[in-house]
Design a protein that fits this description.
about 230 residues, alpha/beta, Rossmann fold, Arc Repressor Mutant, subunit A, five-stranded parallel sheet, 8 strands, Transcriptional regulatory protein, phosphorelay response regulator activity, Sig_transdc_resp-reg_cit/mal, DNA binding
Length: about 230
Amino acid sequence: MIQVLIVEDDVRNAEINRRFVGKVEGFEAAGIATDGRQARELLEILTPDLVLLDLYMPDVSGLDLLRHIKVSHKQTDVIMVTAAKELHTVREAIHGGIFDYILKPVIFERLQETLEKYKSFREKITLLEQEGSRATVDQQEIDELLRLNDNDKLRSAYPKGIDQLTLEKVTGYVMGMNRSFTAEQVCSQLGMSRSTSRRYLEYLVSTGKVTADLSYGSVGRPERVYRAK
């Protein structure tokens, strides 16, 4: 079981990430840290395999914590899960050695995809390490470890569950809207299920093309509404 430490100062987001991790086979959320101090303590206590790391923490930058992990916990890998979209931040995180960079709000299918890819990466590393008679690897094995094998080259540029043609259809429709709309309205107009329309709308939110907010009516639960930028 791959042990995951979630570092997230927003308790609600931390709980969402915990539930998402628990839904992926082979992964377990070992703990949650809501600030840098807790994160350092749990890194020592839990020695997790993987950290889901937010950038904005009340007492430390996620990039500083990333550097700490790479120096003091070399066997722990990091996936950034953050709202930070600045190019220099993304570049610094990549240079810092992250496994992936996921923008909030987190779409389950996107997180699931990278966790499954990470599991395959660890399994390959373990297999190579068990072949104790070899001290080197060949180019194909290196390519697999770097996720540059043929299967990855042929993969869609979009997360699991996002089809290019459907995305173009949804994008074309919502970009023509000059008012707020709901997933229910989109599914009605485009002839798809509500869950499908919501998945594509949340993906557009993650790319910055659409904004999302909650609308509180007089009765019932608040409704998530969207608007094209």
